[in-house]
Design a protein that fits this description.
By secondary structure, this protein is an all-alpha fold. The protein is globular, with a radius of gyration of 20 Å.
Length: about 325
């Protein structure tokens, strides 16, 4: 395999999805037809979910989706993208403590509920509602304090998760939105709940499911919250449970999933976990699949300045070089 060791990787939300990249380029120039055509060709729910999420992030600062709906008011994909964009704007407003956060939240909730009726078989409107649940930190809404299917798990938007699951079992984004809901509730005890949830979801998922990577995200979140406070956290990447989580994600997800289905973010988390666990040869396999792409997360949390992606890229490059050197020294390595 030609690896291009000297090339600096790029951050590209489309990753290896060349069709999505072309639609994004068109969207950024104010045109929506390539987005519409791409979504009409997208039939697998996992790909539909991923593509609509990336497109919405790019469209949220524009009027492209509004222009699409004005031209094609009966379009179901346009209605779903309207909900997607509304949710993205509400979440950004909360992160920026914008004065219109509550107003945008209600608008997004209305758009998402409308989409559940218009696009009944689609999991994405339910994923949108799950994403908005994190804004309700006080659990004021009844749909956000439903009893869990297991007594060891906390109350939460389980009904919304179940609706997404009916339409797309083990929907990757739906479960990540549940994690974000649990993170938003604050304390270290809530982080323990998130860890329990991630383990439960992974244990319930079939081989090849991206849910087997969820525990790696919680481990990064635990490190992020403790960075600078507990020197022992530097050792938790090589702890027995950390090593086991990384190996299980490698064996149960990476080794049993198709290349197109692996998100760059999941691949980066797996490469990071294996590198942290000193499983350099295994990590080299993941770096090879990543090819020219990388994501700032989780690498930014291994730097002294999480706001500087350039430092995160240097950590990524150092980790990749270390892992590939170990792989190259292995006489049994085959590319």
């Amino acid at each position: 395999m030609a690896r291009g060791d000297g090339a600096r990787p790029a951050y590209d939300p489309a990753g290896h999805d060349t069709e999505l990249r072309a639609a994004l380029q068109d969207l950024r120039t104010g045109r929506w037809m390539a987005m519409r055509d791409l979504l009409e060709r997208t039939t697998a729910w996992w790909q539909w979910t991923a593509r609509t999420q990336v497109l919405a992030a790019a469209a949220a600062g524009t009027d492209v989706v509004r222009a699409w709906r004005a031209e094609e008011p009966e379009s179901v994909p346009a209605a779903v993208m309207h909900a997607r964009v509304a949710v993205e704007r509400a979440l950004r407003a909360r992160r920026e403590s914008h004065r219109r956060t509550h107003e945008l939240w209600i608008e997004a909730w209305d758009a998402s509920h409308t989409a559940t009726r218009i696009a009944e078989p689609d999991p994405v409107p339910w994923v949108c509602l799950l994403a908005l649940a994190q804004l309700d930190a006080g659990l004021s809404w009844e749909e956000h304090r439903v009893a869990a299917p297991e007594p060891t798990l906390p109350v939460g938007p389980w009904g919304l998760l179940a609706e997404a699951g009916k339409r797309d079992p083990c929907n990757r984004e739906a479960h990540h939105r549940m994690l974000q809901f649990l993170y938003a509730r604050g304390s270290s005890g809530r982080l323990a709940e998130a860890a329990g949830y991630a383990q439960w979801a992974a244990a319930s998922a079939p081989p090849g499911s991206a849910l087997h990577v969820l525990p790696l995200y919680v481990r990064v979140e635990r490190y992020r919250r403790g960075a600078g406070q507990d020197a022992a956290l530097d050792l938790h990447w090589v702890a027995e449970d950390a090593t086991r989580e990384a190996q299980e994600a490698l064996d149960t997800w990476f080794a049993r999933s198709g290349t197109a289905e692996r998100s760059p973010l999941d691949l980066n988390h797996l490469a990071h976990a294996l590198w942290g666990a000193l499983r350099f040869r295994e990590a080299a396999r993941v770096f090879d699949v990543l090819g020219p792409y990388w994501t700032p997360l989780p690498w930014v949390h291994r730097t002294t300045d999480p706001g500087d992606p350039a430092r995160a890229l240097e950590v990524f490059l150092q980790a990749r070089a270390r892992c590939r050197a170990a792989a190259d020294d292995d006489p049994g390595r085959r590319f």
